[in-house]
Amino acid sequence: MDSTSSFKTYLCLICGYIYDEEMGAPEDGVPAGTRWTDVPLNWVCPECGARKEDFELIEI
């Protein structure tokens, strides 16, 4: 199995922002390739400020 296929995507239930593990959020301090479990607990959605708990795993 290709390792890149194991990257997951998470949707902010508040504003619709998508966090892609492969892309990360480098402009918000989360390097590309950062798994959701490794994103800091105090990280917030860069679009609306929602907490990590307001995100849900999605399949694209």
Architecture blueprint of SSEs:
Blueprint (H helix, E strand, L loop, with lengths): L8 E4 L5 E3 L34 E4 L2
Antiparallel strand pairs: 1-2, 1-3
Quick take:
With 60 residues, the chain is mostly beta strands. The chain contains no helices and 3 strands.
Helix fraction? under 10%
Number of continuous helical runs: 0
Order of the strands making up the biggest sheet: 2-1-3
Q: What's the average pLDDT?
A: 93
- Rounded to the nearest angstrom, the radius of gyration is 11 Å
Described by strand count, sense and barrel closure, the largest sheet is: 3 strands, antiparallel
Protein described:
A hairpin with a 5-residue loop joins strand 1 (9-12) and strand 2 (18-20). The mean pLDDT is 93. The radius of gyration is 11 Å and the shape is globular. With 60 residues, the chain is an all-beta fold. The chain is built from no helices and 3 strands. 0% of the residues lie in helices and 18% in strands. The chain has strands spanning 9-12, 18-20, 55-58. The chain has a 3-stranded antiparallel beta sheet with strand order 2-1-3, with no helix packed on it.
Core attributes:
single chain, 60 residues, 3 strands, mainly beta, 3-stranded antiparallel beta sheet, globular
